[in-house]
Structures are given as C-alpha cells and as structure tokens.
Amino acid sequence: MPRPFPSRRWTVLLAVAGGLATETAFPAKSWWPMAYVGIALILLALRRDSVPWGWFAGFLAGLGFFLPHLWWANEAVGEPIGWIALSVAEAAMVGVFGAAWVLVRRIPAVARSRVLQVLAVAVLWVAVEQVRARWPFGGFPWGTLAFSQTDAPLLRLASVGSTVLVSAAVVVIGALLAQALVHLRGWRVGSASAVLLLAAALTFAPWLVPLGTRAESGTIRVGAVQGNVPEQGAEAVSQARAVTANHAAGTQALLDHVAPGELDLVLWPESAADIDPRTDAEVAATVDAAAQSIGAPILLGTQRYLTDPEDPDVRQRYNEMILWEPGAGSQVSYAKQHPVPFGEYMPHRDFFRTFTSAVDLITVDMLAGTEMGLVPVQIERLGRTVPIAVGICFEVAYDELIRESVVAGGELIVIPTNNASFGLTQESSQQLAMSRFRAVEHGRAVVHVSTVGVSGIISPNGVVMESTGHYTAEQMIERLPLRTSLTVSDRLGQWPALAVGVLAAAAVLAGVVASVGRARERRRGARRPRGRGRR
C-alpha cells in the first residue's frame, strides 16, 4: 500500500485550516470562494486510510469551523459552556462525515474513479448536513454550506434544489480543487489545469439559471420597523414596555415618508411586544394607537403565557406573531413551531443542571406551535386576503418550515427576529443571509425585520433592496411583488434530501462490506504459507 499522505501532523494542520477557511465564507466576512478552499483542505486532510483518524480529522475541521461560527452563543449565554458544547456536538457530526468518507472510498469502483469520488463525497457531506439539521432535539442547520453562497453564482441553484443542491455544488467544487492540488503535487500540470477549468465552469454556470422576480398577483407596500432596545443584551426582555414604545415611535416615524393609509401592512419584529397586547390594556393602547395613526394592520411579535394543565405551579409560553387591526385588535396569530432547545426551552433540565446552573436562565419553557406559518392579511387596496409565509427567528434555517407555508399559498415571506441577546456578534448577518437564500429558493420577496438589526428587505432574486444598521432605530418602506408560482425546489420538496440520505446510507454500507472483504483478504494472506525458495 502506498505511503499515506499527508502525515498526521499535516492532517491536523490541514483539517483545522480547512475549518477556519470555510468559516470565512460566511457572514460577517462573506468571502464565498473560501468555502471551496476550505472543503479542499478538509478533503486533503482525510486522505489517510483510517476510519478513526478520519473521524478525528473531521472533528478537528468541525471545531475549526464551529468555534468561530457560533461565537454568538457565548454572548447569548454569558458563559462559554453552551458555546463550547454546541460547537463540539456539531463538530462531532463533521467527524462522522470524515469516518464515512474513509469507508466509502474503499469501495473498489469509488477507489478507481475520480468522478465517483467527487460525487460520493458530496453525497456524504450533504447527508450529514441533513442529519444534523434534524437531530438531536429537532436539529440545528446553522453552518450549512449553502448559506455561505448568498453572494455567489451558486445561490441561483437554491431555486432548483434548496440547500441540498447548493451545498453539494460547494463540495463538488472543493473536491475538484483538492484533486487539482494532488495533480500539481505530482507535477501533472495539464491534468490540474483541466480540473481547475471544470471547477471554474461549475462555479459560474449557475448564472444561467433564470430567476422570476415580477409580480404575479399584484404588489404590497410594506413598512418595517426596527425599534431597537434600551440596552444591549438579554436583559432587554425585562424592559418590554419600553421596547414596544420604541416600535410605536418607529411606526410614527414612517409618517415622515407616507401618508396614513398608504401602507398596506406594517411589520414589527419578534418580541416587539413581549407583554401581550391581547391581555394588557396599556400595551394594547400603545399598539392600537400606532396602527390607527399609520392606517394599516401591524404584524408583531408577542409572548402568550399559560399554566401547565398538569402542574398549576408551572408556567409555559408560546412565541407568537399576531396581526393587529386598527381599532379591532387581534384575531389572527401564528405560534413558533420550532422553539430552540437550550435557548427557548430546556430539555432534560435536571440532567443538564449538573453541568451548569445556566439552564435556569430559561425560567419559562416555550411550547411548540402546531399550525403552519401562514398568516392571512386582508389588503383593502387589492380587495382580497394575501397569505403571508412567516418563520420566527431561527425557523428561517429550517428548509421544511418555510417551504410548507409557501407551497400552501404564501405570496410573501416575513422573518421577524429578536437579536438583542447576541450583541454585536455575526449572528444577525448570518441570519439575514439565510433569508436571502430563502428568497431565491422560493422565488418570494422577504422582509427580515429585527428588534436591533440587521434588518433587510430582499427581492425574489436575493438582492438586498434596503437594510439597517446594528443597534439602531430605523424604518424601511418598499413596494414588493406578490408571487404565486412555485420553484422547482418547492415542487421537489424533501425528495432531494431523502435521495441523498438513501444514497449515503447505501454507500456507507457498501464501504463496510468492502472493508470487511479487504480485512479477510489480509488475514488469508497472513495465514498463507510462504513458498520455498529455489535451491
């Protein structure tokens, strides 16, 4: 067997460097070509033929990526244990990819074919991404490779195959770069040049994918209010009345640019009124005064508290977006379907308390809503009800949640969020990039509105039409197209993810079989008696 390359020392360096390089492709840096470079370095680190070492190299690459990528988790919790635990858990999944790749390339057909190697490694990477987006505790899609490509030509592939196709394309290009580097190491300049040309073609060819942006069922004029919070940090929740007053003042500021009744809808972010205006007269008066002055309904975030029916001493809550009609209050709401574990509710509280008292920072667990994120809004100017797809905060990261609302009729996407807990970290810009991805994936305009920023209004082709600063009080006004056609990605639904999962499982099984067969051959060779030499 040829001498393994690289050495273990170089494996460690390449793996960590690959993870760090990949992270720079994401906001706030957004150096999108570095995703290809990072994947190439990670694959070079995985050339040793050892499953445990493959896991370890993948794990190191994952740490190099997730520790800086999820730094905002440290800001939110106020101590490093949550940030480190989350980063280690996600990095372990990258380790699974590394181990699986070592197994799969033992399949004789894969070992002989560079084309199959490129395709197989892309399938395995995407399959692991899809698993960690769903498991454990409902999954965590943050750091999906596709979200690094919102400024790249590959973004257009989102309309064809969602995160599955875009992430796969990133890995394919990265794998081609790795092959080119191997060719160059062997001074095979011609082969390296051919592979690099193919990688360049795959990088820029998606510019040819058409994207629909025109209005198909009229337009809607919206105002979005980023009210800011009195102070940075999670303590802003205790100042809920001041936050609501800030958003009411921001709504009044819209009147510097429009007359009453000229807007069809005003959007406030998640937690803009954490004291429920449906049950609190003072907050209701503040919200209604703002709605009546602007002459439009307000879609706003609030919290609905209730008592646990099994334990009257335990309180629970729903994170909701409600539609407030001027002078009429609210009859329409959407409850967040995917609360964040360890952020909005604490699973296995007693167990995790043995590691840190930070679990008790979550004093009231959030319940999951059961209805899809589709809010009907009566638009008087159009003379009809417009269904709006809504995903609250981290829900923008989950493929299925936004897709189901669009397929059910959503003509515009609204992503309300509260980023006050994350300070000046890159979490806000990472989340805005996900909204840009969803715009292209579903061919819908997106309004991404935050309490503290960064907020943005995005056209159906992913272009940010208007955006705000960080920790500022600002407003945005745009006329947006309402669209009803479904993209190829919407029509395919979860089939690409399922297909990738089946292929990956079959490949790993074949790799195990190949490994067992190879081990048997080695044992037989070791037992075979040596022939006698000639006299």
TrEMBL record:
It is a multi-pass membrane protein. Coiled coil: none annotated. GO terms for cellular component: plasma membrane. SUPFAM superfamilies: Carbon-nitrogen hydrolase. GO terms for molecular function: N-acyltransferase activity. It is found in: Cell membrane. InterPro entries: Apolipo_AcylTrfase, C-N_Hydrolase, C-N_Hydrolase_sf, LNT_N. Pfam families: CN_hydrolase (PF00795), LNT_N (PF20154). It is an enzyme of class 2 (transferase). GO terms for biological process: lipoprotein biosynthetic process. Keywords: Acyltransferase, Cell membrane, Lipoprotein, Membrane, Transferase, Transmembrane, Transmembrane helix. Gene3D superfamilies: Carbon-nitrogen hydrolase (3.60.110.10). Residues 220-488 form the CN hydrolase domain. The chain crosses the membrane at residues 31-46, 53-71, 83-104, 116-135, 155-177, 189-209, 495-517. Catalyzes the phospholipid dependent N-acylation of the N-terminal cysteine of apolipoprotein, the last step in lipoprotein maturation. HAMAP family: Lnt. PANTHER family: APOLIPOPROTEIN N-ACYLTRANSFERASE. Belongs to the CN hydrolase family. Apolipoprotein N-acyltransferase subfamily. This is Apolipoprotein N-acyltransferase. It comes from Georgenia subflava.
